[in-house]
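Feature request, filed as a ticket because there's no other form

It would be nice if the structure record came with a short human-readable summary line next to the tokens. Right now we just get the raw output. Example of a typical job, pasted below so the devs can see what we mean:
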Amino acid sequence: QSTSSSVPVYDPNVWDTNRPFLKCSEVNTSRDPALLVFGYRNSSGKIVNDILAIRVGVRAKVVKLGQLGSESDPIHWGMACCLFVNTVYISTIGKNYDQIWKFIPDTREQVECGVLYKPRVGHCMSSADGAVYIIGGTDSVTGRPLDLIEGFDPHGCKGFLASRLIHPVTRACCAAVDKKIFVFGGYSKMMTTVDHVQCFDPATNQCSL
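Raw output as currently delivered:
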């Protein structure tokens, strides 16, 4: 009896409990330190595009700062964000899963600032060595995990192809340490968890395990 070897397809338009949560970022603003939350789901599973600031300490409270995106440029499950010089960069917004937006907490200004080469969801983001990097994720058309690492220059508002992961992964986590980005775990092309720790060095555009 044969078994199917087809790759599970990730449909970003269908919500279920296994979808990655919308993202948050810790920032220090001129007002108060806060954890910013970009979107959430309500009790019926509908995505709400509010931007919330969760302030801790003596003045602890939750404050709504605005709404991310628009009706024509919606947010999705599986987007990601990261902090660069106290500006939060968010991807992927829009109907084509390819827009990069930035949000400035001090002024509450938000604006579209770039477009990805490869639309995706379920990726991770981090900043290192003067640029923002969009890493891995799931192809929004085929549902397959990606190995592509795209860079974005916040100063020139230009994207560039940086490198490729050794192992394609989606729903991974990443963190920048000593100007390198470490990518932890994720799901493989058969949607099974992996224990890889991959290291991307922006100085050489090389990945290693």
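Something like this underneath would help us a lot:
Residues 1-22 have pLDDT under 50 and may be disordered.
The chain is about 0% helix and 50% strand.
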